[in-house]
Amino acid sequence: MERLIFHVDVNSAFLSWEAAKRVKMGLPDLRDIPSCIGGDPSKRTGIVVAKSIPAKKYGIQTGEPMAMAFRKCPNLVAVPSDFELYDKCSRAFKKICGSYAPVMESFSIDEVFLDMTGTSYIYPDPVATAHELKDKIRTELGFTVNIGISTNKLLAKMASDFEKPDKVHTLFPEEIPVKMWPLPVRELHMAGRSSSQVLNKLGIHTIGELANTDVNLLVSHLKSHGRLLWEYANGIDDRPVE
Asked: Is 189 left (phi over 0), alpha (psi -120 to 50) or beta?
C-alpha cells in the first residue's frame, strides 16, 4: 500500500498565535501590520523571533537585532515572546490534527506529520481532507496553517513550504521534476548554507541538477551528507511517522 503523509505547519507560528489572541481582545491584527515577536520592545534589545509579511517588506529578517529592525521600520509593532501562550496554542493545534490521523508525529512546537495511509475509506479525497483540516484550524483557533501532501515525510514537508499562507500543496513523486527540481538547491530540506556553497562551487545550483549528479562525486565532497542530499533531491525518504 502506498503511503500518504501530511505535513501541517503553522504559518509564522509565534506571531500568528499572538495575533489570534489580540484579535479576540479587539486589538489590531499583527499579521496585517509591520510587526514582530522578540526581545524587549521597550528597550529595543534582543532579536527578531518572528515577523509579519508587512514587516518582511521592510527587509526585516528573523534573527536580526531588534535595534536594526526598528531602524528599518520605526513604526514596527514589537511584542515580547509568550511561551505559555505558544504551548497552549500548540496543544490545541495538535489536538485537532491528531483527530484526523491514526499516527501523528510532533516535529516541532508548530508542525506535525500525519500518517494518513489506509484512511481512503474515511477520507477518499486527500486534498479535500487537507482543506477541511486547514479550515477547521483557522475557524476554531484563529490562525492559519500550510499542509503538504505526499508519499513520504520529505516530500510532504517540501510541499508545505510552497506558497504561503493558508495553502494546501501536493508533491507526489511524479510531480518532482516540475514542482521541486527547478528550485534553488538551498531550498532542499537539510541543504544548509555550507552544503549549498559546496554544491554551488561544483556547478550545482538547482535541486534538479543535484538529483542528476553522480552520487559518488557528492560523497567525495560532503561524505554521507552528500548521499542524503542526493536521495532527498530524488524524493527518496523511507522514515516512518512515529
From this structure: beta
Q: At what angle do helices 215-222 and 193-201 cross, to 10 degrees?
A: 130
Residue type, 39: G
**136, burial (CB in 10 Å: exposed 0-12, middle 13-18, buried 19+):** middle
Residue with cell 551528507: 225
- Catalytic residue list: 111
The b/e string for 56-82 (b: 16+ C-beta within 10 A; e otherwise) is eebebeeebebeebbeebeebebbeee
Task: List per-residue pLDDT tens for the chain, 242 residues long.
Answer: 899 999 999 999 999 999 999 999 999 999 999 999 997 777 778 999 999 999 999 999 999 999 999 999 999 999 999 999 999 999 999 999 999 999 999 999 999 999 999 999 999 999 999 999 999 999 999 999 999 999 999 999 999 999 999 999 999 999 999 999 999 999 999 999 999 999 999 999 999 999 999 999 999 999 999 999 999 999 999 999 99
Which of 190, 188, 138, 170 minimizes the C-alpha distance to 19?
Answer: 138
Q: Tell which residue, 108, 94, 98, 79, has the closest CA to residue 21.
A: 79
Which amino acid appears at position 170 of this protein? T
Report yes or no: 147 and 161 within 8 Å, Cβ to Cβ. no
Q: State the CB neighbour count (10 A cutoff) for residue 108.
A: 10
